[in-house]
Amino acid sequence: NAGVTQTPKFRILKIGQSMTLQCTQDMNHNYMYWYRQDPGMGLKLIYYSVGAGITDKGEVPNGYNVSRSTTEDFPLRLELAAPSQTSVYFCASSGLGSGELFFGEGSRLTVL
Amino acid sequence: KQEVTQIPAALSVPEGENLVLNCSFTDSAIYNLQWFRQDPGKGLTSLLLIQSSQREQTSGRLNASLDKSSGRSTLYIAASQPGDSATYLCAPREAQKLVFGQGTRLTINP
Question: How confident is the model at residue B97 (pLDDT cuts 50, 70, 90)?
């Protein structure tokens, strides 16, 4: 049972480059989320989705884009990477029932 | 805007002690509250989920309580062990979104 899978686990980008963080879940969850966690801090919500074709901004959406073409996948795109986007990114999902949130293992991104 | 505060920010205790971690939130209109554990360099693992209609939830040596009206939740850890060392985060859910506290970094000394 894979749960929530994120790729890549580690990535180094140069300023101005673009990339996509992949997230897929196999639990048929409707809700999916992207959070970022800076050192010693809590998690901040970047974007979330309540179902295929529906996305909405969280607390810190600037510099990011998302899409949700299927229930399983919720990729996060970084355009024109900046040092301020150096962080650990977590994808998460939850179902409509209990609402329990399940996390992926994280993607550590460094922008130099 | 929901704000979540966790006290203390860090806690160090000897093995075997019972301890309480605190979580407070400003908006009581929540659906549920979840407690997570995070080991260094790792993702978040769900420990307990309390629905808004519940007062407490138990799993093994862990017990979480919820007082929605006062905006408080506590995580009680009984007979602490070195393996309990981690950061513990609470997150109340508002509609589709969870808001996280900054966590309590717990160290259990052998």
Answer: confident
